[in-house]
Design brief:
Structural class: alpha/beta
Mean pLDDT: 94
Strand content: 25-35%
Largest sheet: 7 strands, mixed
Amino acid sequence: MTSSELWTRTTAERYDAEETEMSSAAVLGATLAFLSELAGDGRALEFAVGTGRVGVPLRERGVPVVGIELSEHMAAVLRRKIDEDMLPVTLGDMATTVVPGEFTLVYLVYNTLSNLLTQDEQVECFRNAARHLSPGGRFVVELGVPPLRFLPPGQVAVPFDVSERHLGFDTFDLVEQVLVSHHLTLDGEDGRYRRDRSRHRYAWPAELDLMARIAGLELERRVADWDGAPFDQNSSKHVSVWRKPA
């Protein structure tokens, strides 16, 4: 068991309903095009495949996909969408779990690398990706850039969503390099809000490049989003591609 917090049955059951925007064609179209191009004629391995938001439609595009997932409840939701022989899933953590065969693509999306709460585990995640890649294969990570520039002296919280049905803000431990995401979500129509929280370890792109180097991978490309916009000092996230030397 890693330091990642485990998704419960209740959270897994409502995950898709609360992530409809991230599952929309507008968001997924560019993501799937980016990943399928890198996979080419080979197989893809998704770390933390979850309910299959990306893995299922990528498989439907013709890319053979295998998943690793820590939460049996998230995997159970995925299994309702697609059979095991079409998208095999192994229960385990993404830092140490090994599945058979080699892959032209290993990918980790939607800030999930930050679920590993220690630097050592994040380094092992890169090592595990490299372990599964065939020569010339790529490891792709989608991860937010820590919004520390929005923290004035003495402040430890940054809001990231203030909408009609959801309030979200992050609090930061700058010494441990850990943030806690707090969510207040309108639950039903009686005005009650549900409170959730999750811990994450944030890392700068330069730190990830060093993790990749430790794992024997080389930075090939870094962009600001799946559409390929240039990454710069104002980017709120990045999509990074590291390559295993041929």
